[in-house]
Automatic annotation (TrEMBL):
Keywords: Signal. Gene3D superfamilies: Periplasmic binding protein-like II (3.40.190.10). InterPro entries: Solute-binding_3/MltF_N. This is Solute-binding protein family 3/N-terminal domain-containing protein. It comes from the Bacteria. The keyword ATP-binding does not apply.
């Protein structure tokens, strides 16, 4: 019996091997280059010599690093507006683009949802009376300079907008009374507020503005990469990847703020 099964097992193994070899390679240009080049809406300039290293705004770095790890490729980020994605993809300047939205793209660009959606949420001292957007008119609202959605929302409230290089700088300004309100993604607000030192800054405003989902943009004709990317995003969702990334971001930013504040909160 075993002697009759061996040819069958061998044939099945050869068939599977041939099928695997026939599968198109994902992101072939990136593999040939030896790195995955990803366009992002904003790329903070490198810190000057001796400057402190702090957590950047949003999850772009975490998302792209995780994708690179899945592909077993190092990642290089370039600043690229979504409006320039089609041209950059055609020219091979980037392998894919992480964008705020995917509307308005031509048919040559495929749009793949990530599963991560957020909108700005306020960080306010609990001993203030600001609870709705109308209360913010004329007040100072602070956020990272990369947080363009938050800036637009605060401007719509009639607030005075102040931007900072990184989110921890904006949050330190809130804690030290230089800003009335800070704005961060609502997805990271809750894990940030779990830390005891943020309890007295856990008031917020009623939700305002639309939630935006981050999307991948890639060449529509690269069907193998499109299929793989869709499967990967579904796998991230099942594995709770977004919760893990937002929790880590909140922890890192809370630590950045701790390092930046040499003394306890000056308001006591």
């Amino acid at each position: 019996m075993m002697s009759r099964m061996r040819p069958f097992v061998l044939a099945a193994g050869l068939l599977l091997a041939g099928f695997a070899q026939a599968q198109p390679e994902t992101f072939p240009a990136a593999r040939a280059r030896g790195e995955l080049v990803v366009g992002v809406p904003y790329l903070a300039p490198p810190p000057v010599a001796g400057a402190k290293i702090r957590t950047p705004e949003g999850l772009d770095a975490a998302i792209t690093d995780k994708l690179g790890a899945s592909l077993k490729l190092p990642v290089r980020l370039v600043q690229l507006p979504a409006a320039d994605a089609d041209q950059a993809l055609k020219a091979g300047e980037v392998d894919l683009v992480l964008a705020d939205r995917g509307d308005g793209q031509p048919q040559t660009v495929a749009v793949q949802a990530t599963g991560y959606a957020a909108r700005p949420k306020a960080v306010i001292r609990t001993d203030t009376r600001m609870r709705k957007p109308a209360d913010v008119q004329g007040r100072s609202v602070c956020m990272a300079e990369a947080a363009t959605q938050a800036q637009a929302l605060a401007q719509s409230w009639g607030a005075t907008v102040k931007t900072y290089r990184v989110p921890s700088d904006a949050l330190v300004a809130v804690r030290e009374g230089e800003c009335d309100i800070g704005l961060v993604d609502d997805a990271v607000w809750e894990p940030l507020m779990r830390f005891p030192e943020w309890k007295k800054f856990s008031s917020t405003l009623t939700p305002d503005g639309a939630r935006q989902e981050r999307v991948w943009l890639l060449r529509a004709q690269d069907e193998a990469s499109r299929a793989w990317l869709g499967q990967e995003m579904r796998a991230w969702d099942r594995a709770g990847a977004w919760k893990a990334m937002t929790t880590k971001w909140a922890r890192d930013v809370a630590f950045d703020v701790y390092l930046d504040q040499e003394v306890p909160d000056c308001h006591g």
